[in-house]
Amino acid sequence: MNPFSTYRIINAEEIIEANIRPNHIPEDINGLLNVLLPVTYITRGDSPRASSLHSNFIQKLSSKLHTLDLLKHFGYELDRKGNYTYRSTDSNREITLRENATNEFKNFYNDLRRIKEGSLDDFAEYIRNSRERPLSAYSDRDADEEQQQQRPNSSSNFRSQSSLLPNSSTVTAGNEKTSETIKSFKESIVPRHAGRPAHSFIRRKLLLLLYKQNYPHSIEFGDEVIDEQIDQCVRQLKQRDRGQDVSCGDEVYFECLIRTNFDNEAALDILRHNRPNLKPPPEPETPRGPTTTTIARSMHPLQQQWKLLNKDTDENTAPQLLLHEGDVGIILYHNKEWKNATHIVTAIIKLRQQYNTREVDEHIVSKMYRLIYSELSNVIGRQSVLKIELLAYALCKVSSNSLEHLSMADIKDILRSSSDTEIHENFQDNAIKSLSMECPICAESYPRSRMETMFLCGHMCCLTCARDYYRGTIQQIRDPQALKKLTCYQEELEIADDVKLNFFQYLGSKLNQWFTDERLVLDAYHENLFLATRDSQIKKCGNSRCTSFFNLHNNNNRIVRAQCPHCQFQQCQQCCRKWFDEHNGMSCEQYAEWLIDNDPDDPEVQLTKYLNTAGMVCPNDRCKAIYEYKPGGCEHFTCKQCRTEFCRICSALFYNPEHNTVMNMVCPRADCSLKRTLHAHCCLNCYREIRDAQVDEIITLLTNHNVNVTEELRQKPAATGLECPVEGCKNAPSMACENRFCERCYKEFLCLLIWRNEIEPWELYPDHNLRQTFTNAGVAVVENSTREVLIQLARQRLTQFLGKPKKIPRIRQQ
């Protein structure tokens, strides 16, 4: 009887058959319950769905076969980054399927617990009768023992019962087929460094591809999970292999799995009866004495040998006579081939950094030589052994910091600096100089490809310093004398007429190369170059949208209005700034200062004026964030930048006993009765202090101080529906303000006019509130004083408690 045949959605049978061993049921059930325990958390109805599952959770599930397949039933899918993310759905069918899968999993988990308690009948018999065994997470030692019990004479019984045993010809054919496959696969792999890849690496790659072919669904789990499955298969074979040879490693198991297409039983039969011999034949021993050759000793004999080889040989044909057939890359040096060798630079830098703390010795030079020679010979063609050896020594001598900027062009230039037949005696010293040149500005060392040469004088500096120098110098070019600064970073040189054309062509090409992504620098160069070489009477139009120049017909230096003939822009003929009559009587410098705060066409000026009437500033001196004030809502505001709490109108701090760490927000008044509650001590002309006044009283006060309420009101938009036009306010608009506010927002608008115009609000205070204000301020008041006396006294003694709107500085747009 199959106790798991009733499951229709989750793969309960596959999980049980792949992870439970017949003779180890209790411990395997415990392990499976432990792995599936986290799944019970994500299937709980009261638990929120995580957006993605933790890698530890996935790793735990992957330790048992087929358990990862459960996640798709609960809405978790594998994305391109290898993470399991939750996919929400509105489909009723999908929601029902997930609910049914959740119920099935809960039943499955309860069945496992019943098996652990021994209350599920016939489970052991079901496991013994299961025949299909896919690649599992446990050892097949028990299955092997059962087969041995059923076949007492396994050696005699084997040939008659096993149809998978290959005969001698099959083994030979399998060896030949595998060797051909490995050979062709090997040639398709491009090694990163040095020689050909090892056979173990090739077999491992073949196993990976073979597994993907046999189990296409495994591709979505990634190579790491597949590698773990391959390791499990190898461990199973090693556990059952009675003739293990530690010296061979795992290659013999790789070979058997490849031949049998991941059939463990057939692979085990090959190991027992026709074990592959993968050991290479022993090489004949050649007696050798101790090596005493060094680079210094070998240089002179090698140079002499090269001279003897090329004696009485035509110079043009000598290299070809020394080359084997097909090795033409060393002669051609195709640019495309050199670009394909850029990975060598990365390998050189990593190797140099690996031995950065050690002194240069023969071991390091040998490694560097093998790296460069093998890779260049593979990509470019056969290389000169002596030049590569000298280059390797130079790369080991220079500092690793210099090699961080190494490029393939440096290696190419060094190798091509002399022919293979006549290597210059200073080749190594010149290579070291080319690989490590010191910049006189920043004192850092760079390869030759990172150094720039000045056209007229030959001074050199690094690319970064050259860019920085010219980026700043271009902005200083205003007259012909300033053009000398473009000649050199070290000295200003005269630009002779006979080299002027070549100089500016060279400089222009360099600037285009350096500032390809900085068009503003290039535009400034061309504009300033024109300004420096133009006639003094030629002016550039001050209109930012006009690129024209015009000629002043009068030859005077007066401050008068001039008009561009192309765009009709009115400007000063001296400074070319936009003309206003206020320029009369001001110098150009004074006029420039006046325009900063008064230009009516400057959006920055208009923004500042707007914020001074409809803006608020955070009172935290270290923050000073600016926000737009909008009527409506609570006046208690929290800065989004520094979390300071303050009043939106007068910027008075709110003292919050629960958050008193920001700006030391503790009430400074020792006798304050509100110290344990959220409160603020606002200015006496703030909306929070005068909001109890009547609307008519507020309008009268504003009118008496020459504020046109009607004009101010008409600047606000009228309501288009049945709600107040103030954002977030749901109240009905009031006819008293022409449907431009609701009653509450209208009063707030009027009180804000009092604050903005710095009007004293004493006439709005009731007598008892005014007396209480005197008491809080510590001012003595005669008991029977009239209201007129109280207001007069308030004007004399309480003006210090009034606030003024803070002027917002001009907003400089970047």
UniProtKB/TrEMBL annotation:
Residues 149-166 have a biased composition (Low complexity). InterPro entries: IBR_dom, RNF31-like, TRIAD_supradom, Znf_RING/FYVE/PHD. Residues 134-179 are annotated as: Disordered. The keyword Metal-binding applies. Keywords: Metal-binding, Repeat, Transferase, Ubl conjugation pathway, Zinc, Zinc-finger. GO terms for cellular component: LUBAC complex. GO terms for biological process: protein linear polyubiquitination. Transmembrane segments: none annotated. Residues 167-176 have a biased composition (Polar residues). Coiled coil: none annotated. PROSITE patterns: TRIAD. GO terms for molecular function: K48-linked polyubiquitin modification-dependent protein binding; K63-linked polyubiquitin modification-dependent protein binding; linear polyubiquitin binding; ubiquitin protein ligase activity; zinc ion binding. Residues 435-671 form the RING-type domain. This is RING-type domain-containing protein. It comes from Rotaria sordida.
